[in-house]
Amino acid sequence: MGAYFKTLSAACGAIAGLAISSASAATVSETFDFTAATGHEVGTSLSFTEGDLGLTVNASFYNTPTGTIGEPLVASSDLYVIRQEHYGIYVSYHGDNDHRIDGYYNEVALFEFTEEVTITNITFGSVAHGSTFDMFVGNDGTLEFAGDYSVAQSVSTTVNAEVFGIGASADNVHCVSYNRHGHCSQLGGSYSAFKITSLTVSYEELAPVPLPAGAVLLLGGLGLLGAARRRKG
């Protein structure tokens, strides 16, 4: 009996090894098209799903980074996120006259995924001439400055992260009108502005692979061995 159990234990170990080796990581690519669905969606956060990947989008004001890579994102009060049919994602607040993610008051859209991903492509619409955007990446709610880019570029990130920030900041904003109290009542000048029409991301997903033929033969052999021992007994 002891020899049989030794054989059974060894076989189970072999099958476990085959099972472990039969699972492999597959690279999955998903595109979130924010222009496709009909109607408008408005909220302090919006949720989307593509395949097995979930995405939550929210937004806030933020401070223009100094340009130092790794500088933390400094965000303030929450803003509304709008998905506009045919036009994509933008950010708004009460009294906002520019219906884009814009640098008039520095707006950033935050994209939080349910898995660590790499953004392989960002597409834009309704772009103000000469616009750039600030990119932030991070995990656990902590985002760091990763650089600024022209919105005319097809941009991909080089790190895996769960959260990304895409912000528009002012280029040359100044006060053009003051109220009777001496406070600025109207800003002028140039600032970046755009809508985000889609994000394409990739991530690693554990994909099951059928057990090799050797595992099936091994299981069959165990069955025959057990049957033989029962007949002998």
Automatic annotation (TrEMBL):
The keyword Signal applies. It comes from the Bacteria. The chain crosses the membrane at residues 209-228. Keywords: Membrane, Signal, Transmembrane, Transmembrane helix. InterPro entries: VPLPA-CTERM (IPR022472). Residues 1-25 form the signal peptide. This is VPLPA-CTERM sorting domain-containing protein. It comes from Actibacterium lipolyticum.
